[in-house]
Amino acid sequence: MIKYAIRFHNNIHDAHLIFHAAPSSEGHPLCKYQWYLTEDKNLVGKPIEDEQYESYIIRTERVKQEGHEGLYLYCKFTYIDTNKENKTEFIKLFSDVNKIIDSGTVFDEISKYDENGQIT
Fold it and tell me: 0.85 cut: is pTM over it?
């Protein structure tokens, strides 16, 4: 999984979070996607309605608003040609991006918005 965080201007706690399932690029096989939330990594998660794309984007504020605080996010993707199912790693969600980092999630890139809304 490829993971990005973009911190808000003058705010070290809030960010846009972008998670990209990124299945093997070998031959660029077609896949079906479904993102899930679960309280426990060992339990099957509940599908997130209408989140059937390769990427999932959420704002830390929305994590709190939707009651996802402390839940694990993951994506199940199925290769269409072989019907083989795979899962991404599990990401523990928090409404503070620093808590996500402290929980062990390693982002591929952490950027921030400048005063004009540009990513730096």
Answer: yes
- CATH architecture of the domain with range 2-112: Sandwich (2.60)
Are the CB atoms for 48 and 36 separated by under 8 Å? yes
Secondary structure (3-state) at 61: helix
**Integer CA distances (angstroms), 90 to 30, 45, 65, 76, 117, in order:** 22, 11, 21, 11, 30
* Long-range contacts from 81-86, C-beta under 8 angstroms, 24+ separation: 81/29, 81/30, 82/29, 86/23
What confidence score (pLDDT) does residue 71 get? 98
CA distances (Å), origin 38, targets 13, 41, 48, 63, 69: 23, 7, 10, 13, 11
Residue at 112: amino acid letter: K
Distance in angstroms (rounded) separating the CA atoms of residues 87 and 7? 27
Domain ranges across the chain: 2-112
Give the span between the Cα atoms of 44 and 67, in whole angstroms.
18
Determine the average pLDDT of the residues in 54-64: 96
